[in-house]
Amino acid sequence: MTDNFVDTIVIGAGVVGLAIARKFALSKRDVLVIEEQSTFGTITSTRNSGVIHAGVYYDKDSLKSKLCPIGNRLLYEYCDKYQIPHINTGKFIVATSSDESKELQNILNQSQDAGVEGIKFVSKGYVKNKEPLIECLEALYVPTTGIIDQSALMRSYIGEIEDKGGSISFNSKFLESEIVNDIFQSKILCNEEEIEINSNNLINAAGLYAQEISQGIKSLKQETIPQIYYAKGNYFDTGRNLNIKHLIYPVPNEASLGLHLGLDLGMQVRFGPDVEWIDEINYDVNDSRLDIFYRGIKKYLPSIDKSLLKPGYSGIRPKLKNKGQGKSDFLIQGTKEHNINNLVNLYGIESPGLTSSLSIANYVYDLLH
Ligand SMILES: Cc1cc2nc3c(=O)[nH]c(=O)nc-3n(C[C@H](O)[C@H](O)[C@H](O)COP(=O)(O)OP(=O)(O)OC[C@H]3O[C@@H](n4cnc5c(N)ncnc54)[C@H](O)[C@@H]3O)c2cc1C
Question: Of all atoms in ligand 1, which is nearest to the CA of residue 71?
Fold first, then answer.
């Protein structure tokens, strides 16, 4: 950065903002990441399931269906190259009723359309053999699903950004930006002091706050900014290794992938996320949800001991569709959508945003070139 001028500003040091900044830094672009919090990834990028998704759930032609399978492959390659802790666990999507079995066929068709490899139907006996505690009628086996240490991933992205001369400015809140002669003149509140930084490109990867950032970009037409809805996902932890080695997912609903059995890298079991539509951001996990969790889990893990389930953490999905309105997709807007050069706004980057971070970064880079 020279004299408060930088080629590219990325707003938000979550996993997506950092992946984008890394892509620009590796392409020899002078990049600055602005982050309001005192460190990276504290909002949604560490409040998730840490799953490397295969890309089996997304509607044909959606951005998620395009970016997730590519992101999955890029992420495994990245983890191998930079030794990011991860485990390719594989997962079972289990049907516990005949209606759910029909839904498995739809998921298989969708995933084949999206080019997901290796997914197949397996029998109840096959699942029992691999996971003796799990009950189902049949299942889909998805071999390319895994789990990752998302903090280690973000630290690695930061290392690459800084190696290439880019920087991250923490405690720096983006306030507003005015476009003068194709240059973004952005006001940033940095350690309580307001400063102005000019840039050629501005990329809004502020997650739950992306809409708020867009309101502060003067000359951006308000009608291009989508409404945001918050869908909290709560988790209940067991703190135990139950000798389960695969991720176990029920059949999904339109707002979430269902109350799945997740694993951390120490193979401890947790359950969630559920869906709780909220009006204001808060991360409390209400223990009155325990019964809903217990009923959901019992369908595929009948031996679960209720007393093991303890309220854990939560994360909030930045949904672009409200309850009952159907599935949300990612929305990534460039010049074609808002008619402003060198500006990209990312909205609705919910799951599988972690998995797709590298493919989203490539997509954004291509939009600006
Ligand atoms: C419950 C849950 C489970 C999930 N599970 C998975 C999963 O298993 N696998 C998967 O692939 N994806 C999953 N996701 C999705 C994934 O976590 C997100 O897509 C991803 O973390 C989004 O990253 P981001 O960088 O866009 O946003 P964020 O992580 O929210 O980062 C945005 C950053 O912008 C900063 N910011 C905001 N306003 C300003 C401002 N004015 N100035 C400066 N900085 C600002 C924030 O402080 C924040 O750090 C899950 C999400 C949820 C909610």
Answer: 11
